[in-house]
Each structure stands twice: as C-alpha cells, then as structure tokens.
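Q: Given only this backbone (305 positions), what sequence would you predict?
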C-alpha cells in the first residue's frame, strides 16, 4: 500500500478522523513539526491545544509526547482552547510556536493540526512545506518520551485571555457595560462555548446562548457562512437581541448578525464595512492579532455605543 502523502492546507494539515487522520500520521506530522522547531531554536518551548472534536485531548497528548521525545518543552492546555487564545499566549510568553488540534470550520468528522510560529501567526506556506517535507521522510523514529523533554499543564489560559481583552485600551468597556446589550451567540458546541459567553458577560451583556456546550457535537455545518446561521438569525429576532455572533469550532472565524437578523458575513481577511442589510464583518484571527486596521474596526463598532 502506498504511503499517505502529507499535504498542506489552510494554516496546517487536516484529514478525516480514522482514515488519514490517525495516530501514525499524527506522529509523522508532529515529528516534522518538532524537527522544524529545532531548526529554528536550540531549546524551543511551545503550547499545544485542541478544540472539542472527538478525542481532541488524546491527540494533543500524543503530539506532546512526540515533542517531548525531541526534548521540546510543551505546555498543554487544560481544556479545549480557541486558536486566538493560543496565538496571544505564544506572543506573551515568547514561545517558539504552538499547535492546535483542530480542523477549524470543517465538519466534525475532520481533524487536523494548525501550526503557529513565534509571532503567533500561522506558518507561511514555505515554512509549512518544510514541516511536511520533514514529515514525509522515510527514516524517522520516535524516542521514548518519558525520559526526555518535559510537559506542563496550563489551566487558566482562557481566563487570562479574557482579562487581557478587557484591558485593551481601544475597547471601551464602561460604555459597553452601560448599554447592557442583549447578544445572541452561536458557538456550534466548539471551543468558544465557554469563553465567548464569559467574555460577553464580563462586558455586561445579556447572553442568549446557542450551541454553547463544548461537547464537539456540532449542531450544524460549523463554518459561519450565511447558509449555516439559521438558528442565530432566528434567535436574534425572537429574543430582540441587539446583535448576534457566530464562531467556528476553534473561534478564529466569526460572523455578525444585525438586530434584524440580516446583515452577516463570515470570516477571512481583515475588514469591516456596512452594507444595505446591516453590519458585515470579515475577520481572521491571524490578521486581527497583528493588523493596525484593528483600531479602525473597533472605532467603527464603538460608533454604535
């Protein structure tokens, strides 16, 4: 049987669980990533997370074992963690990078690895290609992880991320609290199921939760496109919410619905604009973390306060 060829996708590798996404290929990709990290740093430290998909924690633990076998220090998140949280964590703690076990906006039968560099961004296609070239080498072997490297558990990454957001100078927390917005939020039972409502509540919002149980059982196709937001639009209209948000399983894509349940668009590419049907947002977590245009976007949203 021909050996599976590791292929690069958007921000990493993804495949069908129990078919191409299996432990053998997971170890190969993890080892390729480890060798890439070691080519960049003598003593790399990384964070490893996962979303709510089937066996996410178990897959993350396996990646951590491979990293430890190569003497790479790992911090494993205690629970499912959004990709933007990990990106901010990398920057704040000056890590060599991170890996999130997620297939992003794809259906639940898929899983994958998202790779982030020391700047918190996804790997460039060139760097990712290097990872996969290393993963496809025939002569790789794993050491016993118990005797090399180290692993730690982080149990408060999400809480620290919320605190960091509330301290951002361009977020007018007091003004948002005064308005007491009613906000419908659809987290598709992904990694945003806890952190998104918690953040909104800290901002004084009344939250109308939809699919906020982080159990990995996606209630609908998880990509936040117009055709997948029926529940959110209905909830906004029925509850008379001021606004609605939908995120994908690892919370790096977002859709915004206006108070009439109309204006919406899902993520990719930084940008914010108004359209005839309401408020339209296009966001990408990688760009949002680093783009100067974020301030203009926030100023636009603040104009509604």
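A: Predicted residues:
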């Amino acid at each position: 049987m021909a050996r599976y060829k590791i292929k690069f996708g958007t921000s990493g590798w993804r495949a069908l669980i129990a078919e191409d996404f299996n432990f053998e290929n997971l170890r190969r990709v993890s080892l390729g990533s480890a060798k890439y990290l070691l080519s960049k740093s003598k003593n790399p430290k990384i964070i490893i997370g996962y979303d709510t998909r089937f066996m996410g924690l178990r897959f993350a633990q396996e990646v951590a074992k491979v990293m430890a076998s190569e003497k790479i220090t790992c911090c494993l998140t205690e629970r499912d963690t959004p990709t933007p949280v990990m990106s901010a964590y990398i920057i704040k703690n000056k890590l060599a990078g991170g890996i999130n076990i997620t297939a992003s906006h794809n259906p639940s039968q898929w899983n994958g690895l998202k790779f982030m560099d020391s700047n918190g961004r996804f790997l460039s296609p060139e760097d990712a290609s290097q990872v996969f070239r290393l993963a496809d080498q025939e002569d790789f072997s794993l050491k016993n992880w118990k005797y090399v490297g180290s692993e730690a558990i982080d149990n408060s990454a999400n809480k620290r991320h919320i605190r960091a957001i509330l301290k951002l100078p361009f977020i007018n927390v007091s003004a948002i609290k005064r308005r007491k917005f009613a906000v419908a939020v659809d987290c598709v039972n992904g990694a945003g199921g806890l952190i998104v409502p918690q953040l909104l509540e800290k901002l004084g919002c009344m939250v109308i939760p939809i699919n906020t149980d982080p159990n990995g059982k996606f209630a609908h196709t998880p990509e936040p496109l117009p055709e997948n937001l029926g529940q959110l639009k209905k909830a906004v209209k029925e509850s008379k919410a001021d606004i609605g948000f939908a995120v994908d399983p690892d919370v790096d894509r977002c859709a915004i619905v206006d108070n009439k349940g109309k204006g919406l668009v899902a993520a990719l590419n930084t940008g914010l604009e108004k359209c005839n049907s309401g408020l339209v947002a296009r966001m990408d977590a990688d760009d949002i973390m680093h783009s100067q245009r974020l301030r203009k976007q926030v100023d636009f949203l603040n104009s509604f306060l």
